[in-house]
Design brief:
Shape of chain A: globular
Oligomer: homodimer
Largest sheet of chain A: 5 strands, mixed
Order of helices and strands of chain A: EEEHEEEEHEHEEEHHHHHEHEH
Strand content of chain A: 15-25%
Radius of gyration of chain A: 20 Å
Number of strands of chain A: 13
């Protein structure tokens, strides 16, 4: 069985033919312009899909097209309500337009949910039935897999795992609430904290590393900590406690077998994982007597979105 | 179809014959002593169950026995690991002992989960498929229903909804963490806050109401607020904000169709509900553009535990 998985980003659309064994047969991609009308972009995307099906001799062999898209959608209808990166797509029906041009059924879901599904089926989550994935990037995204299936709540509007308050009346979050997990554990938050620390302690190694990296991103604090800088260590320790408290909440709420970490900060790999595990163990994985929760790094990388989108169709 | 539902409390065990329409055919109960050995208590309970089956002419007609029990258990095995109210039951197999004496299959789950299942099937949650129930009592308990089924996580150890931190490094919680929802939104927390307010403002109506009620419980603050006392109002407003932030978190995480409130504080009924709804509406039910979540009070009262326990068997 073969499905097409489509991952819609802010500057490009990436697609792949994916088998029910999770193999990618062929990849394709398309630049997307946010100034171009929805209809023009969808016509270009549909034409490309039709061409790729033909070129790869897959006519009549595609079960469906799964799409992972950021933003707020009516997923059953296929309607885009609010697209943060491509505002000209707002209030357009992505599902119906592609079905009209390509003639293959389309399923739509949130990009974070879809990535979690991909990791659960064919990535570092393949041996677990119950897991959550937390993406530590510009924001904090999340996906929940229960008994091997994507859980996304009423009208697919749940699993907004970054928007759980961990510090009431705390930092302002883009969502309008104060003290969200995202406002403490995203790469964006770590960068803000790093810059504030550099301002207070310009003598720290963080200043040297800023020059080496030609700027500040989520890596600076970890690099400084690894080189023994006390301000870098403090930043990392604070970050681990924010991340740890959020994960402990999710241990108590979902009690998953595993939590997969992905996104920019997860590139810290074993250095991050070992510290998070230590924090969770010290706090009894959420509550005394509670079973251990595995913490792992995502393994599909940039393919998780395409593979996961295809899974919407392959495992419906 | 008929099942027996058993609700194990700290001082008594309550049971009922429940039909698959949620009707209670007959109730029975038994006092339990925490000083008496497990074997003696279970023999008494089993004898009572056998007698009730015979007296009600239900031999061969009982599909199974469902039990809701507080504390930490290996639910599949039927083993009680830690029983907060009946410590002599620790490390005993409740399921196997009753099956041995009565000869009917037994299923075990947490009391909060079971109550949520009862409300979902036959109480104020019957028209929803996705809901959560939050019990505002001595602690804050919770149960999660997804697509009409009880969700309780890996090894049935999830859905500990009271133990989500809403204020990092905040109030100490019985679970060992700091800042749990339970430490702010339980009846116990409200009583503590009421006593602290009375100490700071002995001139408030709270002092008068203490004499009327012969003590302080979760009602005092609400009574004072209703009579216009500014300190009572402040207590209630603070309580609504704690409860509201926790519920907003669960809106974002689960996006249920409804949240059912139960337990002592839920006795405030419409006065509580109207204020909680206002708080949620003001904060867009968790996030701008998110669908509304119904807030309702549990309707089965003290029967939710027995009916829910029977549902473990009726809807397995």
């Amino acid at each position: 069985m073969i499905a097409i998985g489509i991952d819609i980003g802010g500057t490009s659309i990436k697609g792949a033919f994916v088998t029910d064994k999770g193999e990618i047969l062929h990849r394709f991609s398309l630049k997307v312009s946010k100034d171009s009308p929805f209809e023009v972009e969808i016509k270009k995307l549909s034409d490309l899909i039709n061409k790729e099906i033909k070129d790869n001799h897959l006519e009549g062999k595609i079960k469906g097209i799964g799409i992972g898209n950021p933003g707020i959608m009516d997923m059953d209808e296929g309607l885009i309500i609010e697209s943060p990166n491509l505002p000209s797509w707002n209030n357009h029906n992505l599902k119906k337009e592609i079905e009209k041009h390509v003639g293959i059924p389309v399923k739509l879901n949130n990009d974070a949910n879809v990535a979690a599904l991909g990791e659960a089926k064919f990535g570092s989550g393949h041996k677990y039935k119950d897991l959550i994935m937390i993406t530590l990037g510009t924001g904090v995204g999340g996906g929940v897999i229960i008994n091997g299936k994507l859980f996304d709540g009423h009208l697919h509007q749940g699993a907004e795992l970054g928007h759980m308050i961990i510090k009431m009346n705390g930092r302002e979050c883009g969502c309008g609430r104060k003290g969200c997990f995202e406002a403490y554990a995203s790469a964006t938050a770590l960068i803000k904290d790093t810059k504030a620390m550099m301002k207070r302690h310009p003598e720290s190694l963080l200043t040297v590393i800023e020059k080496e990296l030609n700027g500040v991103d989520a890596r600076n604090a970890f690099m400084a900590a690894k080189r023994g800088d006390k301000y870098g260590k403090k930043l990392v320790n604070n970050y681990i406690s924010y991340l740890g408290e959020g994960l402990l909440n999710y241990c108590n709420i979902f009690r998953p077998e595993a939590i997969i970490l992905s996104g920019g900060v997860a590139n810290e790999g074993e250095y991050l994982i070992s510290r998070v595990k230590k924090y969770l163990a010290k706090h009894h994985y959420g509550m005394k007597g509670s079973p251990e929760v595995d913490i792992v790094i995502s393994s599909l990388g940039y393919d998780s979105g395409k593979i996961g989108a295809a899974c919407l169709v392959l495992f419906e």
